[in-house]
Structures are given as C-alpha cells and as structure tokens.
C-alpha cells in the first residue's frame, strides 16, 4: 500500500506530461463556465454564435464531454482569448508566471490565477479617461475589490460608494453593480471573484465618509 502511495505521489510531482495534460483537460470545463459568466452569455446565445448545441456546451462545462479542437476553436473565437489560455495548457520547464493583459475596452484586466477554482483573482487598471457614466450589470457570483491607487467609484444596488487606496468592498454580483474612476485620475485595483455565497467579510465606507477613513 505504501509503495503504491509513493508511486502516485511521484506521478503527481514528477512533471509527467500525460498527467499534466489530463489535469489541463479536466480543468477546461470550469474555465469555460467562468468565461461564459465573465461575458454574460447564455448557453442559448453561445450555441447560436458557435453552432455548437446547448447540450454539448453544457456537457463541456460540466466535464461530461471531453474537449476537442473542433469544439474549442469556435469558443476561443467568441471569447476572444488564445486557445492555450482557454485550455490552460501547461508550460514545460519554465517556472515564471506570465501574466497576459486583456483589453476590456475602457480597462485593462490581468488574470492573476491560472487555473479554475473557488476564487479567481484579477488586477484591473482603469485609465483616467475611462467611461465614468454608470452602466450597472448583474451576474451570478460574489466579488471583493481592493483599491491599490486612485479613487474608485462603486455603485451596488442603491449604494453609491467612493473607495480610496487601501479600502475594500465586497458585494453580491446578482445586485446591479458598476465601478469606474471617481475622477480624472487612473485607478488600479485587485479583485477576487467567487461562487455564489462565498464572502471575504470586508466593507467599504460610503462616499459621504471623510477621505482617509479605513474599511470597517
């Protein structure tokens, strides 16, 4: 028994290419589900855009259908992400973490987590000329924000908040929400996005609170 355990542990840590590929394929489904949530696309709309049936897309996201190049290429085109990033293909022999910025239109988003999991981390850069007209959206999940620099305006439901550097906020993303620069200065922030019900237990001060006040 101990011998078999050692063999399994060796296979897990020895960098065996077939094991790495199997792990990458297993993680494709959660990554596809996350991409669809990020883009706010329904299965029906995605089926229309890709020509792939809803049932096949659903099985892909749940891991019941093994991903193939024929299925992944149309999805990569719709999501506008490189195929290797969507698949999470392992890089061999180089320990460096390569952070690939994504153009979000009026913002730059840098994913800080490479693999799907309960929480996903992002760094977002909002230029000073980013759109400051609120356009609230809703989707499943829970989000936590931490301002690194600049002042961030955050609207969640009926709350209109302004966060200074070092302040944080968390909210249920099923509530209408939007964030952008509070003034003409650029903003940098970190965000954690989790599944419904997961929280980080930090709060931000309302906009009327004195500048410099910390989070609760």
UniProtKB/TrEMBL annotation:
Keywords: DNA-binding
Ranges of biased composition (kind: Basic and acidic residues): 1-13
Record's signal peptide: none
Region (Disordered): 1-24
HTH cro/C1-type domain segment(s): 32-86
MF terms (GO), sorted A to Z: DNA binding; DNA-binding transcription factor activity
GO cellular component labels: cytosol
The protein, known as: Helix-turn-helix domain-containing protein
Protein species of origin: Actinomadura harenae
Species classification: Bacteria, Bacillati, Actinomycetota, Actinomycetes, Streptosporangiales
């Amino acid at each position: 028994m101990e011998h078999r355990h050692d063999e399994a542990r060796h296979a897990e840590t020895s960098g065996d290419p077939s094991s790495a590929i199997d792990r990458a394929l297993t993680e494709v489904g959660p990554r596809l589900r996350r991409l669809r949530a990020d883009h706010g696309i329904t299965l029906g709309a995605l089926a229309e855009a890709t020509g792939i049936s809803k049932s096949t897309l659903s099985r892909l996201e749940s891991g019941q259908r093994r991903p193939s190049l024929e299925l992944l290429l149309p999805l990569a085109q719709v999501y506008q992400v490189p195929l290797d990033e969507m698949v999470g293909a392992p890089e061999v022999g180089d320990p460096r973490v390569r952070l690939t910025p994504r153009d979000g239109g009026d913002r730059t988003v840098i994913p800080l987590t490479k693999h799907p999991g309960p929480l996903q981390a992002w760094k977002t850069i909002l230029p000073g000329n980013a759109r400051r007209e609120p356009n609230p959206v809703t989707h499943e999940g829970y989000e936590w924000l931490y301002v690194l620099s600049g002042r961030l305006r955050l609207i969640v439901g009926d709350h209109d908040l302004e966060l200074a550097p070092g302040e944080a906020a968390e909210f249920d993303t099923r509530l209408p929400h939007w964030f952008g620069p509070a003034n003409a200065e650029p903003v940098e922030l970190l965000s954690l996005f989790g599944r419904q019900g997961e929280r980080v237990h930090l709060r931000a001060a309302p906009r009327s609170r004195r500048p410099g006040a910390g989070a609760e």
